[in-house]
Write a structure and sequence with these properties.
Number of helices: 12
Radius of gyration: 20 Å
Strand content: 5-15%
Oligomer: single chain
Distance between the termini: 42 Å
Order of helices and strands: HHHHEHEHEEEEHEHHHHH
CATH class of the largest domain: Alpha Beta
Helix content: 55-70%
Largest sheet: 5 strands, antiparallel
Length: 264
Protein backbone atom coordinates (compact mmCIF):
# COMPACT_ATOMS: atom_id res chain seq x y z
CA UNK A 1 0.00 0.00 0.00
CA UNK A 2 1.17 3.54 -0.80
CA UNK A 3 0.39 6.51 1.45
CA UNK A 4 -1.31 8.30 -1.46
CA UNK A 5 -3.87 5.48 -1.64
CA UNK A 6 -5.05 6.07 1.92
CA UNK A 7 -6.77 9.35 1.11
CA UNK A 8 -8.87 7.61 -1.55
CA UNK A 9 -10.20 4.87 0.71
CA UNK A 10 -13.37 4.95 2.77
CA UNK A 11 -12.37 5.07 6.43
CA UNK A 12 -13.70 1.59 7.15
CA UNK A 13 -11.66 0.13 4.29
CA UNK A 14 -8.33 1.29 5.75
CA UNK A 15 -6.25 -1.62 7.06
CA UNK A 16 -4.43 -0.09 10.04
CA UNK A 17 -1.56 -2.59 9.93
CA UNK A 18 -0.89 -2.05 6.21
CA UNK A 19 -1.21 1.72 6.63
CA UNK A 20 1.24 1.61 9.54
CA UNK A 21 3.72 -0.30 7.39
CA UNK A 22 3.39 2.26 4.59
CA UNK A 23 4.09 5.10 7.03
CA UNK A 24 7.08 3.29 8.52
CA UNK A 25 8.56 2.69 5.07
CA UNK A 26 8.21 6.36 4.16
CA UNK A 27 11.12 6.98 6.54
CA UNK A 28 12.70 3.52 6.55
CA UNK A 29 12.23 1.90 3.14
CA UNK A 30 13.72 -1.37 4.36
CA UNK A 31 11.42 -1.63 7.40
CA UNK A 32 10.33 -5.26 7.74
CA UNK A 33 6.59 -5.02 7.27
CA UNK A 34 6.41 -8.78 6.96
CA UNK A 35 7.47 -9.19 10.59
CA UNK A 36 4.61 -6.98 11.75
CA UNK A 37 2.12 -8.82 9.56
CA UNK A 38 3.27 -12.18 10.93
CA UNK A 39 3.05 -10.90 14.50
CA UNK A 40 -0.55 -9.70 14.13
CA UNK A 41 -1.55 -12.82 12.20
CA UNK A 42 -0.04 -15.00 14.93
CA UNK A 43 -1.99 -13.13 17.57
CA UNK A 44 -5.19 -13.55 15.56
CA UNK A 45 -4.63 -17.29 15.16
CA UNK A 46 -4.08 -17.60 18.92
CA UNK A 47 -7.34 -15.77 19.62
CA UNK A 48 -9.30 -17.84 17.11
CA UNK A 49 -7.89 -21.06 18.56
CA UNK A 50 -9.44 -20.26 21.95
CA UNK A 51 -13.12 -20.11 22.73
CA UNK A 52 -13.94 -16.41 22.57
CA UNK A 53 -14.60 -14.73 25.94
CA UNK A 54 -18.21 -13.62 26.16
CA UNK A 55 -17.72 -10.38 28.11
CA UNK A 56 -16.01 -7.19 27.00
CA UNK A 57 -13.70 -7.39 30.03
CA UNK A 58 -12.79 -10.97 29.13
CA UNK A 59 -11.91 -9.98 25.57
CA UNK A 60 -9.90 -6.98 26.78
CA UNK A 61 -7.92 -9.25 29.12
CA UNK A 62 -7.26 -11.71 26.30
CA UNK A 63 -5.93 -8.93 24.03
CA UNK A 64 -3.70 -7.71 26.85
CA UNK A 65 -2.44 -11.22 27.62
CA UNK A 66 -1.21 -11.59 24.04
CA UNK A 67 0.08 -8.10 23.25
CA UNK A 68 1.45 -6.95 26.61
CA UNK A 69 1.82 -10.28 28.37
CA UNK A 70 3.26 -12.75 25.87
CA UNK A 71 4.85 -10.20 23.51
CA UNK A 72 5.80 -7.55 26.07
CA UNK A 73 4.48 -4.55 24.14
CA UNK A 74 3.92 -1.51 26.34
CA UNK A 75 4.61 2.19 26.65
CA UNK A 76 8.11 3.60 26.29
CA UNK A 77 8.52 5.40 29.60
CA UNK A 78 12.31 5.71 29.33
CA UNK A 79 12.69 7.20 25.84
CA UNK A 80 9.24 8.64 25.16
CA UNK A 81 10.40 11.17 22.55
CA UNK A 82 12.13 8.55 20.39
CA UNK A 83 10.61 8.89 16.87
CA UNK A 84 10.57 5.09 16.55
CA UNK A 85 7.75 5.10 19.10
CA UNK A 86 5.52 6.41 16.28
CA UNK A 87 6.76 3.82 13.75
CA UNK A 88 4.46 0.79 13.91
CA UNK A 89 7.05 -1.62 12.52
CA UNK A 90 9.68 -0.40 14.98
CA UNK A 91 7.17 -0.53 17.85
CA UNK A 92 6.62 -4.22 17.14
CA UNK A 93 10.38 -4.81 16.96
CA UNK A 94 11.34 -2.76 20.04
CA UNK A 95 8.25 -3.76 22.06
CA UNK A 96 7.80 -0.10 23.04
CA UNK A 97 5.70 2.73 21.67
CA UNK A 98 3.44 5.73 22.19
CA UNK A 99 -0.21 5.32 23.27
CA UNK A 100 -1.57 5.86 19.75
CA UNK A 101 0.77 3.29 18.15
CA UNK A 102 -0.02 0.66 20.78
CA UNK A 103 -3.75 1.41 20.54
CA UNK A 104 -3.63 0.80 16.79
CA UNK A 105 -2.28 -2.70 17.42
CA UNK A 106 -4.99 -3.53 19.98
CA UNK A 107 -7.76 -2.23 17.75
CA UNK A 108 -6.38 -3.90 14.61
CA UNK A 109 -6.07 -7.26 16.35
CA UNK A 110 -9.55 -7.13 17.84
CA UNK A 111 -11.09 -6.32 14.48
CA UNK A 112 -9.04 -9.03 12.78
CA UNK A 113 -11.02 -11.64 14.74
CA UNK A 114 -14.35 -9.85 14.46
CA UNK A 115 -14.38 -8.19 17.89
CA UNK A 116 -15.53 -4.61 18.32
CA UNK A 117 -12.84 -2.24 19.58
CA UNK A 118 -12.27 1.49 19.25
CA UNK A 119 -9.52 3.92 20.20
CA UNK A 120 -10.70 6.78 22.41
CA UNK A 121 -9.16 10.24 22.17
CA UNK A 122 -8.07 11.72 25.51
CA UNK A 123 -5.92 14.85 25.86
CA UNK A 124 -2.35 13.70 25.29
CA UNK A 125 -3.37 10.05 25.52
CA UNK A 126 -5.23 7.27 23.71
CA UNK A 127 -6.99 4.33 25.33
CA UNK A 128 -8.96 1.42 23.90
CA UNK A 129 -12.58 0.44 24.46
CA UNK A 130 -13.70 -3.14 23.81
CA UNK A 131 -17.44 -3.66 23.40
CA UNK A 132 -19.79 -6.63 23.34
CA UNK A 133 -23.31 -5.38 22.70
CA UNK A 134 -23.93 -2.87 25.54
CA UNK A 135 -21.06 -4.24 27.63
CA UNK A 136 -17.86 -2.17 27.60
CA UNK A 137 -14.32 -2.46 28.96
CA UNK A 138 -11.50 0.09 28.86
CA UNK A 139 -7.78 -0.65 28.77
CA UNK A 140 -4.63 1.45 28.65
CA UNK A 141 -2.16 0.05 26.08
CA UNK A 142 0.60 2.36 27.31
CA UNK A 143 0.34 0.87 30.80
CA UNK A 144 0.80 -2.80 29.87
CA UNK A 145 -2.79 -3.02 28.64
CA UNK A 146 -4.10 -2.57 32.17
CA UNK A 147 -7.88 -2.51 32.50
CA UNK A 148 -9.12 0.85 33.77
CA UNK A 149 -12.42 2.18 35.03
CA UNK A 150 -14.23 5.05 33.34
CA UNK A 151 -13.47 7.11 36.45
CA UNK A 152 -9.76 6.48 35.89
CA UNK A 153 -10.13 7.50 32.23
CA UNK A 154 -11.80 10.73 33.34
CA UNK A 155 -8.91 11.39 35.73
CA UNK A 156 -6.40 10.85 32.89
CA UNK A 157 -8.32 13.28 30.68
CA UNK A 158 -8.41 15.91 33.43
CA UNK A 159 -4.69 15.50 34.03
CA UNK A 160 -4.29 16.20 30.30
CA UNK A 161 -6.18 19.47 30.61
CA UNK A 162 -9.83 18.55 29.97
CA UNK A 163 -11.38 19.84 33.19
CA UNK A 164 -14.88 19.11 31.87
CA UNK A 165 -14.21 15.43 31.03
CA UNK A 166 -17.29 13.37 31.87
CA UNK A 167 -16.45 9.96 30.42
CA UNK A 168 -17.96 10.51 26.98
CA UNK A 169 -14.81 10.35 24.89
CA UNK A 170 -14.41 10.82 21.16
CA UNK A 171 -14.05 7.60 19.18
CA UNK A 172 -11.18 7.94 16.74
CA UNK A 173 -11.63 6.91 13.12
CA UNK A 174 -8.94 4.95 11.32
CA UNK A 175 -7.90 8.12 9.52
CA UNK A 176 -7.70 10.08 12.78
CA UNK A 177 -5.51 7.39 14.31
CA UNK A 178 -3.05 7.55 11.42
CA UNK A 179 -2.97 11.35 11.47
CA UNK A 180 -2.36 11.25 15.23
CA UNK A 181 0.52 8.82 14.64
CA UNK A 182 2.19 11.19 12.16
CA UNK A 183 1.33 14.41 14.00
CA UNK A 184 3.30 13.22 17.01
CA UNK A 185 6.39 13.20 14.81
CA UNK A 186 5.50 16.52 13.18
CA UNK A 187 5.16 18.22 16.57
CA UNK A 188 8.61 17.03 17.57
CA UNK A 189 10.06 18.26 14.26
CA UNK A 190 8.53 21.72 14.75
CA UNK A 191 9.85 21.94 18.31
CA UNK A 192 13.31 20.96 17.06
CA UNK A 193 13.14 23.66 14.37
CA UNK A 194 13.28 21.09 11.56
CA UNK A 195 10.85 22.79 9.19
CA UNK A 196 11.65 20.52 6.23
CA UNK A 197 10.89 17.42 8.25
CA UNK A 198 7.69 18.96 9.61
CA UNK A 199 6.59 19.81 6.07
CA UNK A 200 7.28 16.28 4.82
CA UNK A 201 5.14 14.92 7.63
CA UNK A 202 2.31 17.37 6.94
CA UNK A 203 2.39 16.31 3.30
CA UNK A 204 1.81 12.74 4.52
CA UNK A 205 -1.07 13.83 6.72
CA UNK A 206 -2.80 15.72 3.90
CA UNK A 207 -2.41 12.60 1.75
CA UNK A 208 -4.04 10.48 4.47
CA UNK A 209 -6.80 12.98 5.35
CA UNK A 210 -7.26 15.42 2.44
CA UNK A 211 -10.56 16.69 3.86
CA UNK A 212 -9.04 17.84 7.16
CA UNK A 213 -8.82 21.60 6.70
CA UNK A 214 -6.37 22.41 9.49
CA UNK A 215 -3.69 20.16 8.00
CA UNK A 216 -3.63 22.16 4.77
CA UNK A 217 -3.28 25.44 6.67
CA UNK A 218 -0.24 24.25 8.60
CA UNK A 219 1.24 22.72 5.45
CA UNK A 220 0.87 26.03 3.61
CA UNK A 221 2.47 27.87 6.53
CA UNK A 222 5.48 25.57 6.48
CA UNK A 223 5.78 25.83 2.71
CA UNK A 224 5.77 29.61 2.98
CA UNK A 225 8.46 29.52 5.67
CA UNK A 226 10.65 27.55 3.29
CA UNK A 227 9.94 29.94 0.42
CA UNK A 228 7.86 27.39 -1.50
CA UNK A 229 5.18 29.92 -2.42
CA UNK A 230 3.83 28.00 -5.41
CA UNK A 231 3.27 24.96 -3.19
CA UNK A 232 1.78 27.15 -0.45
CA UNK A 233 -0.75 28.55 -2.92
CA UNK A 234 -1.64 25.01 -4.01
CA UNK A 235 -2.18 23.98 -0.40
CA UNK A 236 -4.37 27.00 0.33
CA UNK A 237 -6.38 26.32 -2.82
CA UNK A 238 -6.83 22.70 -1.74
CA UNK A 239 -7.96 24.01 1.64
CA UNK A 240 -10.73 26.04 -0.06
CA UNK A 241 -12.18 22.76 -1.30
CA UNK A 242 -12.48 21.39 2.25
CA UNK A 243 -14.48 24.13 3.97
CA UNK A 244 -17.73 26.09 3.77
CA UNK A 245 -16.79 28.33 6.71
CA UNK A 246 -17.09 31.86 5.31
CA UNK A 247 -14.71 33.37 7.88
CA UNK A 248 -12.09 30.75 7.08
CA UNK A 249 -12.59 31.24 3.34
CA UNK A 250 -11.92 34.97 3.78
CA UNK A 251 -8.78 34.12 5.75
CA UNK A 252 -7.57 31.80 3.00
CA UNK A 253 -8.17 34.43 0.32
CA UNK A 254 -6.27 36.96 2.42
CA UNK A 255 -3.33 34.54 2.70
CA UNK A 256 -3.41 33.94 -1.07
CA UNK A 257 -3.38 37.70 -1.69
CA UNK A 258 -0.43 38.12 0.69
CA UNK A 259 1.47 35.44 -1.20
CA UNK A 260 0.72 37.17 -4.50
CA UNK A 261 2.06 40.46 -3.13
CA UNK A 262 5.24 38.80 -1.88
CA UNK A 263 5.88 37.41 -5.38
CA UNK A 264 5.39 40.76 -7.10
Amino acid sequence: MEIAQLGLLDDGDIDLVEAGIALARADRPKADGGALRRLVSGWAIALQRDSAPISAAGRARRLTALIAGETGLSGDTEDYENPLNCDLVAVAERRRGLPVALSILYVALARRVGWRAEALNLPGHVIVEVRVSMDSALLDPFDHGTGITRERAIAIARQGGDDAADGRFETMSNRQLLVRLVSNQASRARIAGDTRRALALHARMTAIAPQLTSLWWERARLEQLLGHNVSARASLTAMLETTHDTALIRRIHAALAALARSDS
